[in-house]
Amino acid sequence: ALKEKYKEIYQQLEADNACLIVEDQKQLFYHLLKLIEDKTLRDRLSENGVLTGRRFAWDNIIDQWEALLTK
Q1: CA 37 → CA 8, 15, 33, 53, 65, distances in Å?
Q2: Which of 29, 35, 37, 46 is deepest in the core (most CB within 10 A)?
Q3: Whole-angstrom Cα distance, residue 67 to residue 43?
Q4: Model confidence over 33-63: pLDDT tens digits?
């Protein structure tokens, strides 16, 4: 499964800002219920999601894209 192949990346995402990486409906239900019941978790994931988004903002990645496309 994809989750096993990229285990380290998934673990980082799940820890920081994405708990909805699922492989079946039961996992999806579990994570959605967890989000509904845990305001602290929702707040943390929300804040971390914004920070992750900023890391990938155009101004922060343009040099990487330029380097990749000009190779």
Answers
A1: 27, 17, 6, 25, 40
A2: 35
A3: 36
A4: 988 999 998 898 889 888 888 888 999 889 9
